[in-house]
Amino acid sequence: MPARMRLQRHGKKNQPFYHIVVADGRAPRDGRFIEKLGTYNPLTNPATIELNEESAVQWLKNGAQPSPTVRRILSYKGVLLRRHLQIGVEKGAISQEVADARFNEWKQAKDAKVASAKSNAESAKRDVAKARMEAERKHNEAKAEVVAAKRKAAAEAEAAAKAEAEAAEAAAETTEAPAAEATEAPAAE
């Protein structure tokens, strides 16, 4: 059975973390392995991949078969391109310097693309936070306007009640005053 390059799961429930290993194809997923090539954390954005590229190229040369996910990881990190270029060097199609130059050119373009994606993700995150704060500010202003309107209505109602009470008190005083004068006047005669 050939060696397989595959992921070995670690981490808690709903928080996966993987080791990239070379293991016998008959071994269980999380069982014994021959060599650990690196780690893979899919929870970060972009995913964090640490890989011993030289060792991975050597295992591919020796015939290790990567799983589909590991194949995508190796492609993302440029290991498959490096292996392809190395085969060209071995056949004499290109020189080692040309192969290294092509790989370095690809690596720089890939790093620029990843950096751009990171900065876009960060700016999108900032924009979402800014929009959320703006929406919250508008909501708070609307809430403050409603509270101010309620307080104004309550103050107007209180002022109206106070004016009504004063008017009623003034009316009561005016009705009491003539009645008091009328009762005082006959007694004075």
Could you write a compact summary of the structure shown?
The protein is of the alpha+beta class. The protein has helices spanning 53-61, 68-77, 79-91, 96-188, and strands at 3-12, 15-24, 35-41, 48-51, 65-66. It has two domains: 3-94, S16 Ribosomal Protein, Chain: A (2-Layer Sandwich), CATH 3.30.1320.10; 115-169.
Description of the structure:
There is one protein chain. The chain has helices at residues 53-61, 68-77, 79-91, 96-188; strands spanning 3-12, 15-24, 35-41, 48-51, 65-66. The chain has 189 residues and is an alpha+beta fold. A hairpin with a 2-residue loop joins strand 1 and strand 2 (15-24). Helix 1 (53-61) packs across helix 3 (79-91) and helix 3 (79-91) packs antiparallel against helix 4 (96-188). It has four helices and five strands; from the N terminus they run ββββαβααα.
